[in-house]
Specification:
Elements lengths: L2 H35 L6 H21 L10 H24 L2 H9 L1 H13 L1 E3 L1 H18 L7 H27 L4 H28 L10 H27 L2 H22 L7 H22 L4 E3 L7 H19 L1
Antiparallel strand pairs: 1-2
Helix pairs in contact: 1-9, 1-10, 2-8, 2-9, 3-7, 3-8, 4-6, 5-7, 5-10, 6-10, 6-11, 7-9, 8-9, 10-11
Length: 336
């Protein structure tokens, strides 16, 4: 296959992966918002456990059909991933309860600098000036259109710090595990989803009761609410899978930066379906700034030197000279 056609094919697959993630992520947010706001199902952690249980069922079916090949992930690596992932989910829910919406959004934005720091420290990634500036522009744009009231307290700040670092580590670990153990997105999801489902379905009802003072088993289920729960779980399969595909193909930083397109789409969809007063000139300006930053980031990070791993060159002059001397000595011995 010609280099040009390979590049075109990769670009097409990359675009499809991003679109898959955007559509499923925005879809699940809209469905969950309707489920919680309209039908009062406020058990977010338990619902996430149901999402992973449904995803686990999907991976089992695909494994039985032969679409997922056997693979190995050490238990210690799985345990670390589950800790990061579950602390991320619990931390975000607690942070939203203890902090204002504005500070919660600031905490979410701070995941990008933290993800950058992880790549710099562990992967020795170096960012160009344009890449850094484009990330800053995205942060400013999303901040303008999402951050309103900002109030924080000590326990809310601690919850936000735990949520930000655990989320950044979880997303970094997705990319790391796929590279280190040569795992596909399906393979990694097959290892992690059952463990996450089990832990969240055990912890979720107690955590949700602590946060909402309501019991999930006492909720008045009906046909419509069960339909929304089923729809949410079905879309979650695509959301979980597409997240692993995108982070595996790119990095956690790119996933975070370009992922804020979902934030903008959610704001627009929310305007049409829920709050028609939420979209004003201030919010539109922030959206435009954020989109320009994403376009700039995509262009800057794809250029040579935009985002690359540092290379440490070792001095080779003396080694080469020593090698030449060794070759000469070997030749003399052969001649002798």
């Amino acid at each position: 296959m010609a280099p040009g056609s390979k590049a075109d094919k990769k670009a097409t697959v990359d675009a499809a992966a991003w679109m898959f993630n955007v559509v499923t992520s925005v879809g699940i947010i809209i469905v969950n918002k309707a489920l919680m706001a309209t039908y009062g199902f406020s058990f977010a952690t338990t619902l996430t456990g149901l999402h992973f249980a449904t995803t686990t069922l999907m991976t089992l079916v695909l494994r039985c059909l032969g679409y997922i090949q056997p693979s190995h992930l050490p238990f210690t690596e799985l345990l670390k991933f589950i800790l990061f992932a579950n602390f991320s989910i619990v931390g975000m829910n607690v942070s939203l309860m203890w902090n204002s919406v504005g500070f919660y959004q600031i905490a979410k934005l701070s995941m990008i600098p933290v993800a950058c720091l992880l790549e710099v420290v562990f992967d020795k990634i170096r960012y160009s000036r344009d890449t850094k500036l484009s990330i800053g522009l995205v942060l400013v744009g999303v901040g303008v259109c999402t951050v309103t009231d900002v109030s924080v307290n000590t326990k809310g700040f601690v919850a936000a710090v735990i949520a930000v670092w655990s989320t950044a580590l979880q997303q970094y670990y997705v990319h790391y595990l796929q590279r280190k153990y040569s795992l596909t997105s399906f393979n990694l999801l097959g290892h992690t989803a059952p463990a996450q489902a089990a832990t969240l379905l055990i912890v979720g009802p107690f955590l949700d009761f602590w946060l909402t003072e309501k019991r999930v088993d006492m909720y008045e289920y009906n046909v419509v609410s069960l339909m929304f729960i089923t729809l949410s779980c079905t879309i979650a399969i695509g959301t979980n899978l597409s997240q692993f595909i995108c982070i595996g193909r790119f990095t956690a930083v790119s996933f975070q930066v370009l992922g804020h397109m979902k934030t903008i789409l959610v704001l627009i969809m929310g305007f049409f379906f829920f709050d028609r007063d939420g979209l004003n000139l201030h919010v539109i300006l922030g959206m435009v700034i954020a989109v320009l930053g994403m376009i700039w980031y995509g262009n800057a990070s794809s250029k040579p030197g935009g985002k690359e791993k540092k290379s440490y060159s070792l001095p080779t002059t003396r080694q080469q000279k020593h090698g030449d001397d060794s070759d000469s000595d070997e030749n003399l011995r052969l001649k002798a």
